[in-house]
Design goal:
Helices cover about 45% and strands about 10% of the residues. The structure holds zinc ion (ZN) (2 copies).
Length: about 160
């Protein structure tokens, strides 16, 4: 766990809220603590469930109102992995260049960074007269368990 780094992302989000003159409520605090203490990708409903473990009073409405603020701040990114629900990724603040590989069966997501990919990116953009601002690379694959057993035990029904 990059503990110091997470504190930093949380601090940046609090400053973002202050700039917008948004009040810090107990519910919102529970949601923010939850988001910046995980490195997992989560759905809105997962965030609701996890936040309620910290504070039972957290409402679905507050979660759905806070998510757009998190994405607007640039500290959390909305991800479409081609699943029924959008996922939210809290790891871009500290690892802005990371990529994802996802199992098409169980949906297991693994993050990776690659200097080679960055190199190719820089080379191509330079050649075409562009400067890279952001990138998004998502590989759909089958995980090791799927290849060995033909199914994934963690697959959600
Ligand atoms: Zn990620
Ligand atoms: Zn799998």
């Amino acid at each position: 766990m990059a503990d110091a780094a997470n504190k930093c992302a949380r601090q940046r989000f609090l400053e973002f809220l202050a700039q917008k003159n948004l009040r810090m409520t107990g519910q919102r605090r529970a949601i923010i603590e939850t988001v910046f203490s995980t490195e997992e990708h989560f759905t809105a409903e997962q965030l609701l469930e996890w936040s309620r473990r910290r504070d039972k009073s957290v409402s679905r409405a507050t979660v759905y109102r806070t998510l757009p603020l998190l994405t607007e701040s640039g500290l959390v990114r909305e991800m479409d992995f081609g699943k029924e629900h959008k996922f939210y990724d809290p790891n871009y603040a500290e690892h802005p260049r990371h990529n994802h590989i996802i199992c098409q069966d169980c949906g297991k997501i693994v993050e990776f960074e690659s200097e080679k990919i960055e190199h190719v990116e820089n080379e191509i953009s330079r050649r075409l007269g562009y400067a890279v601002k952001s990138h998004r690379l998502q590989i759909t694959a089958t995980c090791e368990e799927f290849r060995q057993r033909g199914k994934c035990s963690k697959k959600r029904p």
